[in-house]
Amino acid sequence: MEATSHAFKDNVRRAIVDPGLQKALGMMKTGFQARRLAAIEKLPEFEQLRDVGRDIKNHVLENLDFYLERFERKVTEAGGHVHWCRTAEEARETILGLCRKACAKTVTKGKSMIAEEIALNDFLEEKGIEPVETDLGEYIIQLRREPPSHIIAPAVHLNKEDVIAAFHKSHTHLDPGRPMDDPHMLLDEARAVLRPKFLAADVGITGANFMIAETGSTIIVTNEGNGDLTQILPKMHIVLASLEKLVPTFEDAATILRLLARSATGQEFSVYTTVSTGPRRPGDLDGPEEFHVVLLDNGRTDILGTEFQDMLRCIRCAACLNHCPVYATVGGHAYGWVYPGPMGAVLTPTLIGIEAAGHLPNASTFCGRCESVCPMRIPLPKMMRHWREHEFERHLAPMAVRSGLALWAWLAKRPGLYRAVTGLAARVLGLLGRAHGRYGWLPLASGWTGGRDFPAPEGRTFMSQWRRRSGG
Amino acid sequence: MPAASPRVGLFVTCLVDLMRPSVGFAAVKLLEAAGCRVEVPASQTCCGQPAYNSGDRRDARDIARAVVAAFAGFDYVVAPSGSCAGMIHEHYPALFADEPETLAKARELAGRTHELVSFLVDVLKVERVDSAYSGVATYHDSCSGLRELKVKAQPRRLLASVAGLSLKELPGAEICCGFGGTFCVKYPEISERMAADKAEDVRATGADMLLAGDLGCLMNMAGKLQRDGSAIRVRHVAEVLAGMTETPPIGEPGG
Predict the structure, then answer these.
(1) Is residue B247 part of a domain?
(2) What's the pTM?
(3) Residue A340 domain-assigned?
(4) A-chain residues within 8 Å CB-CB of B94?
(5) Claim to verify: residue B11 and residue B115 sit in the same structural domain
(6) Contacting residues for A157 by C-beta, under 8 A, at least 6 apart
(7) Does the pLDDT of residue B2 top 70, yes or no?
(8) Do A207 and A87 reside in the same domain of the chain?
(9) CB distance from B252 to chain A under 8 Å?
(10) What residues make up the domain containing B107?
């Protein structure tokens, strides 16, 4: 998808006045948070589990080459194939090649953020292959031809009316007068439309929540069971995953699974946890004839060893989005690319460049809530600050911000002058503002006074009063 | 146990110095009442957070170095702000990771730097204050104090001892008010919307006064409440704890 992160401010302005979006965001604000809290309160060792999860991922990142090779060996032993792809383009071409080999006309897809990252659907369509999203949220936004706005709830920006409209527009073979006001009716309708697509698909593409080095298995978690049908029914199963999804053992995956659903939806476990190990074996009742893992780097190994390495611990639970007051205000599309919210603010600049995504790490109050809920203890605000440092060093920040800051810092390093200048400003603003106590408008401060009053200072600074009091 | 009469360096904070000195005097009063000898180093200006959070590490380090020097030798350093105290406590050591000599000093300073109210309760073991306020207050937990310094129960505990004051909990008290330092002017639309949500929660409590421990957040919330025509008074928690409520509330006209 074309990134609009550079136009973040315009996206924000539109989002804030979009009544449908604001209604949908209002609905999601409390639900995720309350459910997560209830789930972790029932698990006394949750905080220790976070440490263990962090350590597992750190260990993998320190030994990534070893575990990747081991994973590949095990996949091959199980009869599957691993395709190493350095870039999004390589991954797309590899998948296209596999689809062509399977003579695929349609492919079903489980939910995959990596597929969004490499813009797989548009690419396959261009090449004459129909991709069918099978996760309900993904299916809805595919009908609407828009990207997901949330990494686990892709259609969270929509209301029921939007879904009804999308189904009316797309499911033209159904009676236009059919009742649709109950969400269950919509669910049944989607299920009925998707069922034949599952059966007709030549290839099934899923993501992976985990890749397990000791067995060459991949794991997906879903709540709808669509992933199982996607990967079991077609002749070929392609797993598309970025390389940091690796864990050494099943035990490690089980540990992190205890964190994942609780942090994401507040469930103890997702409804379906599906393990794939190679293609169908002799005697198996079902399963694909071919099993391929498309392993994507796409800049991740460049992050290794940098101040952004911790980001590769991310398990895509979306707790940071669900607790971010900025995300709750503007929604996911405003971020302008695949990954929104705090994790996106750190990850997106690594993938599309800080020049294009500079707003994202800046649009944070550093309130720290994201880090406080991250199951993998990723220091998100710290890494957003690192991006700001990169911007500052490369003079990418807006001129007004940089020069204002430079002047202030220059003054702050000269206490005598600082006192004279700020003392005068405080007195003038205090004097002029005394009658009302506040300003409804101030020159150079329209950002503040556009929607808020600015309290007038009391007048004399503390330091000048203190000097007088102590007779200095 | 703290020394009988600890020598405390007051880090006034730039906002309190310029905007609302009465918070500084309230801090001095509370500290002195708890037995401290309070001094105010004259060379202090700011903790450097605006530079640090804007990616300007060099200026942040220069300013931090000056703070480290200005506050050498005090038993404790106390700020009426979780944000500025958090900057010194959490981030100064990170700033000097590659400067061993300054790092040692920054760590040493970080170890004796505290936010005002948590210092009174956790270090000085103050259990009650001698002050009165007649009315219903609600309290917003400013982010840095809450998450970096674990300031949560301490202000509530001392507010409970203020005669005549009843505290009504604010729903979503731990959600950011939208101030965020330079964020509030860099992304004013988001900031203002967050402030509006906060103002709505504050009004819903029915309290007549909103308190918090950080002046930036307080100015943001007061500005939004007043723009909306609300009569809710907004004050720094130290003013109420010190019984210094004769000054007009934030953003209200003086006498």
Answers:
(1) no
(2) 0.96
(3) no
(4) 382
(5) yes
(6) A21, A24, A25, A149, A150, A331, A332, A333
(7) no
(8) yes
(9) yes
(10) 7-122
